[in-house]
């Protein structure tokens, strides 16, 4: 199964807080080609999650359009082609690990997947032996892994993740990053990852999008072209840190304006979908 | 180990209190023997068991059917309020009326409009409806919003969310609603038996035994009614404990946002408010149409207006009603304030001396599950027929709910706040003054809202059964004189009074808030 392209075109969205309009996303365009891995970085509250909620049809855009594989998010989500993992595992506490992973099938009204498939997923996220456990008996990291397994259960062609590793400690996070890379490389779903971890974004993604403070606009679009599979040694590579530092400068309110101007200049010399390899070495 | 020690200490204290009761009874310490020794009550109960069981059976039957029907309606309502929030706003008037209605005021009306058995079951169901409905609503809304998003993200609609998530998530809340509803069903059944001339039932049995001035018999009936109510409570509590442990495991306390009505068109808001006010009247009218009764017996909303305002009976009716209100309203407010004060003192006690509190709790629970009507004759025996008895009954019906709310409020104060003053070596008293009392202010108003309608019920029962004053007495007299207009008028006025007092608490809260000047 191939990934589906994901396109945001001139999307704007405002919320009304006590009757006043609060713009959250301002005329944002973003093109994620089929099978790509895009990471979204931005200051807290900048509207990253809203972007993802729009793609999940949990919110609707005020203007602009959003297409997944040329279709509307609602109909794509109903077809089961989209997998999702949130920062909070959002497991149903009364269901076992197996049964939680099966949940998307029940929501989609599909027939029960065979046990072998579910067991395969459980094994994939390293929870063998915990099939019958309830979420309450698992640690935070284990719960999050169940949520990842659940997001993969329907063999999604688009994977949307909102800080899925945010609640994990650094060591577990690294492990999960490796796992996610492996899973993604095998099935190549078009992936959109929202994260606060700059290194995580650079480590996993083909491309890092840095968003401005609210309302969200694309501040910089940074291609990351380290070869895959990426191993733990990449984390010690000076080139890796160079990319991370550039992004950190963009996110720091004090240096952000100057860095953004530099990035924009770099962007203007190329098109957004095929950006120049500014400062990255493969 | 310490937990076991606590349990043993609590058990010993309870036994001591029971022994004190027995001792006081044997020596006739309380009001010349109106508190009989526990052994005498139980012996008499055992000896008269044959006489009891048809009554117990009848009450159980009414209460169970009422429990079943009331809960079915409550759950259906909660689900529809959850799926279509606009229905909740349309039924808001009905819900407030269902919460505030003094059952004793509506019982005679139900008996007029429906046949005896239906009336009794209806009253039990009516008292069951509100606790279950609110608990179920809170439960359905408490579902983890992330899980709701997840289901929606896979294209699940409101129905699938309800089925896969909300109903199961609401189960512990629903069962804790049943804990309140089960004793309420028994109370409703006994109250209705009282007013409907039933042949069997603990209410009837109690009424028949009232004149005989045999405290041990009255206590026996009261304890039997309490045991039935307590059994329902215990069953629901056990079920609730089982489901809660699973749910609690990972749930985080984020409630879904309340629907925002600020941006709504004013016309729509006005229409919904009008619908909310008219709905109870519509149901009233519809019920009478369905029962097909003579307009002399069954008054429609227009009939009551005619009786009270426009008709030739109006001036006499108004005079009697106003005189009754002048007696009832002040004592209701006084009783409610005393009940709240008592609850507050008890909550402080439970904070300062948890062990003593745990021993007292079963006794407090008894006053709650013990149907009021069973309590009243006993209170009359002990306190006579003056104003004291009204106050005592009012306090005993109001304090428990208020206490639970306040104790919860105390429990929600962050431990760190106490640790801070502890670190400066504060005494328990100082901790109370510095932290617990200021922190519990907002809970006091929640407690007041819960207590007010109950206070009116307590006062009216005392007036009916004991003091012969006010609205309760007017209702009782009107039944005697077959003054149907007045029966309906009292029912309507007492509901309106209750709703008014209920709506008044937020205003008081606003006035009492010290930080409003800063804005």
TrEMBL record, chain A:
- Name all ABC transporter domain ranges: 6-238
Q: What name has this protein been given in UniProt?
A: NitT/TauT family transport system ATP-binding protein
Origin organism is Roseibium marinum
Record keyword Transport present: yes
What keywords does the record list, in alphabetical order? ATP-binding, Nucleotide-binding, Transport
Q: Recall the GO molecular function terms of this protein's record.
A: ATP binding; ATP hydrolysis activity
Where does the chain cross the membrane? none
Q: Which PROSITE patterns does the entry link to?
A: ABC_TRANSPORTER_1, ABC_TRANSPORTER_2
Q: Which domain of life is it from?
A: Bacteria
- Which Pfam families does UniProt cross-reference here? ABC_tran
Q: Which CDD domains match?
A: ABC_NrtD_SsuB_transporters (cd03293)
Q: What family does this belong to?
A: Belongs to the ABC transporter superfamily.
Automatic annotation (TrEMBL), chain B:
Which residue numbers delimit the ABC transmembrane type-1 domain?
A: 56-240, 325-505
Q: Which UniProt keywords apply?
A: Cell membrane, Membrane, Transmembrane, Transmembrane helix, Transport
- Going by the entry's taxonomy, the superkingdom of the source organism is recorded as Bacteria
Residue spans crossing the bilayer: 60-84, 96-114, 120-140, 169-192, 218-241, 270-291, 331-353, 360-383, 389-407, 443-466, 486-511
**PANTHER family associated with the record:** ABC TRANSPORTER PERMEASE PROTEIN HI_0355-RELATED, ALKANE SULFONATE ABC TRANSPORTER-RELATED, MEMBRANE SUBUNIT
Protein family per UniProt: Belongs to the binding-protein-dependent transport system permease family.
According to UniProt, the name of this protein is: ABC-type nitrate/sulfonate/bicarbonate transport system permease component
Give the species. Answer: Roseibium marinum
Starting at the broadest rank, the lineage of the source organism is: Bacteria, Pseudomonadati, Pseudomonadota, Alphaproteobacteria, Hyphomicrobiales
């Amino acid at each position: 199964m191939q990934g589906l392209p994901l396109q945001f075109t001139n999307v704007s969205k405002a919320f009304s807080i006590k009757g006043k309009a609060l713009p959250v996303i301002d005329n944002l365009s973003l093109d994620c080609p089929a099978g790509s891995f895009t990471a979204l970085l931005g200051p807290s509250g900048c509207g990253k999650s809203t972007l993802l909620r729009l793609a999940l049809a949990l919110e609707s855009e005020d203007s602009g359009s959003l297409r997944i594989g040329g279709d509307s998010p609602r109909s794509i989500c109903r077809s089961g082609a989209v997998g999702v993992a949130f920062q909070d595992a959002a497991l149903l506490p009364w269901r076992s690990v197996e049964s939680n992973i099966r949940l998307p099938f029940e929501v989609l009204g599909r027939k029960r997947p065979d046990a072998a498939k579910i067991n395969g997923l459980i094994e994939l996220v390293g929870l063998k032996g915990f099939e019958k456990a309830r979420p309450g008996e698992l640690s935070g990291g284990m719960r999050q892994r169940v949520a990842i397994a659940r997001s993969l259960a329907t063999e999604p062609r688009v994977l949307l993740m909102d800080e899925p590793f945010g609640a994990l400690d650094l060591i577990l996070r690294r492990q999960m990053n490796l796992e996610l890379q492996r899973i993604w490389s095998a099935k190549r779903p078009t992936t959109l990852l929202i994260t606060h971890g700059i290194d995580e974004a650079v480590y996993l993604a083909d491309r890092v999008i840095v968003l401005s403070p609210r309302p969200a606009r694309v501040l910089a679009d940074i291609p990351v072209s380290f070869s895959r599979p990426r191993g733990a040694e990449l984390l010690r590579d000076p080139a890796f840190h160079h990319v991370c530092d550039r992004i950190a400068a963009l996110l720091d309110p004090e240096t952000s304006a100057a860095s953004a101007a530099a990035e924009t200049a770099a962007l203007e010399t190329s098109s957004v979908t095929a950006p120049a390899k500014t400062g990255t070495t493969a | 180990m310490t937990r076991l020690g606590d349990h043993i200490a609590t058990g010993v204290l309870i036994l001591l209190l029971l022994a004190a009761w027995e001792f006081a009874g044997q020596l006739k310490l309380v009001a010349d023997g109106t508190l009989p020794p526990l052994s005498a009550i139980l012996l008499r109960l055992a000896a008269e068991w044959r006489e009891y069981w048809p009554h117990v059976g009848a009450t159980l039957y009414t209460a169970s059917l009422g429990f079943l029907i009331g809960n079915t309606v409550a759950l259906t309502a909660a689900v529809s309020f959850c799926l279509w929030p606009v229905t909740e706003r349309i039924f808001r008037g009905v819900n407030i009326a269902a919460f505030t209605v003094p059952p004793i005021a509506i019982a005679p009306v139900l008996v007029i409009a429906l046949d005896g058995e239906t009336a009794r079951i209806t009253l039990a169901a009516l008292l069951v409806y509100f606790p279950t409905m609110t608990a179920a609503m809170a439960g359905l809304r408490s579902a983890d919003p992330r899980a709701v998003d997840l289901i929606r993200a896979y294209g699940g609609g409101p129905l699938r969310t309800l089925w896969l998530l909300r109903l199961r998530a609401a189960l512990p809340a629903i069962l804790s609603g049943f804990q309140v509803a089960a004793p309420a069903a028994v109370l409703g059944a006994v109250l209705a038996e009282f007013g409907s001339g039933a042949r069997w039932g603990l209410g009837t049995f109690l009424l028949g035994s009232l004149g005989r001035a045999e405290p041990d018999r009255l206590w026996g009936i009261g304890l039997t009614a309490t045991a039935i109510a307590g059994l329902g409570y215990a069953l629901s509590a056990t079920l609730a404990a089982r489901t809660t442990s699973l749910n609690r495991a990972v749930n985080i306390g984020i409630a879904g946002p309340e629907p925002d009505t600020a941006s709504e068109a004013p016309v729509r808001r006005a229409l919904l408010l009008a619908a909310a006010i008219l709905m109870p009247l519509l149901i009233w009218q519809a019920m009478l149409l369905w029962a097909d009764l003579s307009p002399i017996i069954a008054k429609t909303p227009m009939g009551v207006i005619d009786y009270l305002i426009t008709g030739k009976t109006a001036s006499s009716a108004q005079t009697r009603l106003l005189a009754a209100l002048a007696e009832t309203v002040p004592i209701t407010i006084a009783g409610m304030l005393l009940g709240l004060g008592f609850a507050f003192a008890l909550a402080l006690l439970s904070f300062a001396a948890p062990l003593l509190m745990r021993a007292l709790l079963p006794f407090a629970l008894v006053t709650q599950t013990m149907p009021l009507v069973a309590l009243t004759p006993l209170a009359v025996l002990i306190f006579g027929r003056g104003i004291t008895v009204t106050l005592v009954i009012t306090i005993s019906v109001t304090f428990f709910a208020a206490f639970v709310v306040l104790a919860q409020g105390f429990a929600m104060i962050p431990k760190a706040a106490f640790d801070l003053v502890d670190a400066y070596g504060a005494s328990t008293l100082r901790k109370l003054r510095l932290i617990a009392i200021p922190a519990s202010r907002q809970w006091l108003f929640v407690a007041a809202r819960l207590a007010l309608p109950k206070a009116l019920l307590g006062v009216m029962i005392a007036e009916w059964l004991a003091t012969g004053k006010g609205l309760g007495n007017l209702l009782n007299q009107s039944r005697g004189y077959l003054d149907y207009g007045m029966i309906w008028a009292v029912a309507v006025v007492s509901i309106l009074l209750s709703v008014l007092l209920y709506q008044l608490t937020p205003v008081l809260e606003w006035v009492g808030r010290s930080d409003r000047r800063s804005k």
